[in-house]
Amino acid sequence: MLFKAAVIEGIRTGEVTVAYRRWARPSVVEGTELRTQAGVLAVDAVDVVDEGTLTAADARAAGAPDVEALLRGLRAGPDRQLFRVRFHRVGDDPRIALRRLDLTDGDAAELRARLEGWDRRSPTGPWTQAYLELIERRPETLAGTLADELGLERLTFKRKVRQLKELGLTESLPVGYRLSPRGEQLLAHLRAG
Known about the structure:
CATH superfamily of the largest domain: Winged helix-like DNA-binding domain superfamily/Winged helix DNA-binding domain
Number of strands: 6
Shape: elongated
Number of helices: 9
């Protein structure tokens, strides 16, 4: 789930404990955890809600000033129901700390093996080092622009970048990506052979 910048701090402080979304079917499940811009969230409940029952307190718990503002920010559509997602913050996203860790030779060897495995299994051939180099060369560039440069669909490109992000090698920015310090160190290892 994505959250607007104005809500993120409220989640971090515990003031925001619910989110409302219009979905054809829920895209989150009770009992799971989500990594978000505000940290890791545990999903406590997912319920269908009648928008006519929402109160000002419900809106404030979601980080909105009032019910009208809350509903205005949601997608509409005949096939969509209003869901309330109750959650609590578990802690920081572990990938953030991982991005800052200095690579040992063992870490570099382990990451290299992981990337080589992805490259071997890719039906389109090796891609990992090329993605790292492209992001290094073109930070803060729209994903669609980078995908076009590689001749890929945007969603395919983003899926692969998420794989690199899981290893703490890249960071998402408001626009595009950049290499994390860990990603920069690994790319130097890869280039050195």
